Amino acid sequence: IRAAKRSLCGQDLSDHLALLRASDGFEAARAKGGDHARSFCEAHSLSFRQMQTMRQTTTRLRNELQGRGLWGEDADRNGSDVALVCAALCAGLFPNVANGSAKGGSKLKVQGGRLEALPHVSSVCSFSKGGKDIWDHWSDASTQHVDDEGRGSGDAASERWLCFNEVSQVEDHYSLSGLSPASASAFLLLCGEGDLSVRDADEQQKTGSSPTAAESTFSSFWDSADPCGAAPQTAEEVQMV
Questions:
Q1: Are 231 and 184 in contact, with CB atoms under 8 Å apart?
Q2: Is residue 214 a contact partner of residue 195, using CB atoms and an 8 Å limit?
Q3: Are the CB atoms for 9 and 17 separated by under 8 Å?
Q4: Residue 162 CB coordination number (10 Å)
Q5: Are 125 and 119 in contact (CB under 8 A)?
Q6: What is the model's pLDDT at position 55?
């Protein structure tokens, strides 16, 4: 199942994106005929009946939203924007977030660090080789990333944040299902209760001005969300927002 999901989500390693692309692929195959749709399901370990049910549910939901004036012709115009889709998932699932690091072992910290959990075996993010394959993948992806100012992210994958659907327990073991990567900028802009104050970090350092109440509120939120403390590369992202 994991291999089938990875074939759908590609380099993005997101269970939600795998589901989205399964739905898009099913629709494209269905437009060619029932046999093509069944072949698509067989090739990706999908249930043809479940895909039909999901399509019917999606249609009913879209019709309901259209009837209430909440869905327009361009409502899905950003459906192919992976970063935006993951940011929206992060906002909707918060505070269901987890973080971990390549140096911290294969387990992820959840619920403010009170629990340690592994990705569910069916997730595209499930670990093998102690998680080495996943961390190597994220390191490669981060090395290739360059932001708007031409800065490379370097070793940004040494710590990783994800959002998830639910955490389940079997005896003393916890697992996370429905995982997608979450960026620091998504947390900053879309999550938490404190107001975000955009400022020039270099200018504040020169003037020696103290943080505002909004900044203190956000700092408290960030400290409670990250039991390990913000990594240096995370702090740099915060300053560049």
A1: no
A2: yes
A3: yes
A4: 27
A5: yes
A6: 93
